[in-house]
From TrEMBL:
It comes from Micromonospora terminaliae. Binds 1 divalent metal cation per subunit. This is SMP-30/gluconolactonase/LRE family protein. Its cofactor is Zn(2+). Coiled coil: none annotated.
């Protein structure tokens, strides 16, 4: 693969890239914004959110769901651009909430790291299921800093990155949306998998912040590709016209990135060996 090229520079703290409706979307946590990016690297703010972290996905009707994680809120963006409460996650766990992924039925899976990062003592995290009517319940627990999540195209498997355990964990998805059959999808020792995406060959790309790289791994743990970078890779997304553009969201990590520190966030792109799943 060729060396990644810079598409966007000067983000405060980029995260959560998604390819949707022909554009790259991402969150800038340090600025409290959800952005879109065009092929020339021009950005446009589509939502501003109070609370960290900011992760997002879409309901089947096209409305955006946004996690205002520090406040434990799942917000819904209405057609007029306003943000309305969709679910109260703090009622389940009073610690920061993180990643969200939605399914074709309008269910949203949202995970919580389970403790106050970075100052708090470690506690296991969990995954909640938020139904289309906004009711929420925990459906998985005992996760070591759950981070990126992805559903397989058939909606039958949820994969979760456990950053503090060096593994990707999979669950089967029942007809009612609950999770069962927990198993190790891939052990990735000495790694800290963060944001993830799935390709058409069934492999997962994950960002790794402390090791400053992005890694493609097959089910079972075999490493297929590795891209070394000069700063931490927080997440990745496949997209572009043919689904084979890999977008890497990178930042020089420090807590100051969330509070007005140097804007070291970038989006880098390169051609991937396989297109996005689905």
């Amino acid at each position: 693969m060729t060396a990644p090229q810079i598409l966007v520079d000067g983000l405060a703290f980029g995260e959560s890239p998604r390819w949707h409706e022909g554009r790259l979307w991402l969150a800038d946590w340090g600025a409290g914004e959800v952005l879109t990016v065009d092929a020339a690297g021009r950005t446009e703010v589509v939502a501003r959110v109070d609370g960290l972290p900011i992760c997002f996905d879409w309901l089947p009707d096209g409305r955006l769901l946004v996690v205002a994680g520090g406040a434990g809120r799942l917000l819904r963006r209405e057609p007029d651009g306003s943000l309305r409460a969709h679910a109260d996650l703090a009622a389940l766990v009073p610690h920061p909430w993180n990643e969200v992924v939605t399914d074709a039925r309008g269910n949203a899976y949202v995970n919580t790291i389970g403790f106050d990062f970075p100052a708090g003592d470690f506690r296991p995290g969990a995954v909640a299921l938020v139904a289309p009517d906004g009711t929420a319940r925990l459906v998985a627990g005992d996760l070591a800093f759950p981070n990126g999540m992805v559903l397989t195209p058939d909606g039958r498997t949820l994969i979760v990155a456990e950053s503090y355990a060096g593994r990707l964990t999979a669950y089967d998805v029942a007809a009612d949306g609950t999770l069962f059959g927990r198993r190790v999808w891939a052990a990735v020792p000495d790694s800290a998998p963060d944001g993830i995406c799935l390709d058409a060959a069934g492999a997962v790309w994950y960002g790794d912040v402390p090791n400053r790289c992005a890694v493609r791994v097959a089910e079972g743990g075999r490493v297929l590709d590795r891209i070394d970078l000069d700063r931490g890779c927080f997440a990745c997304a496949l997209g572009g016209p043919d689904g084979r553009t890999l977008h890497l969201v990178t930042t020089q990590w420090s807590p100051a990135a969330l509070s007005g520190g140097p804007r070291t966030g970038q989006v880098r792109t390169l051609r991937a060996p396989e297109p996005a799943a689905g």
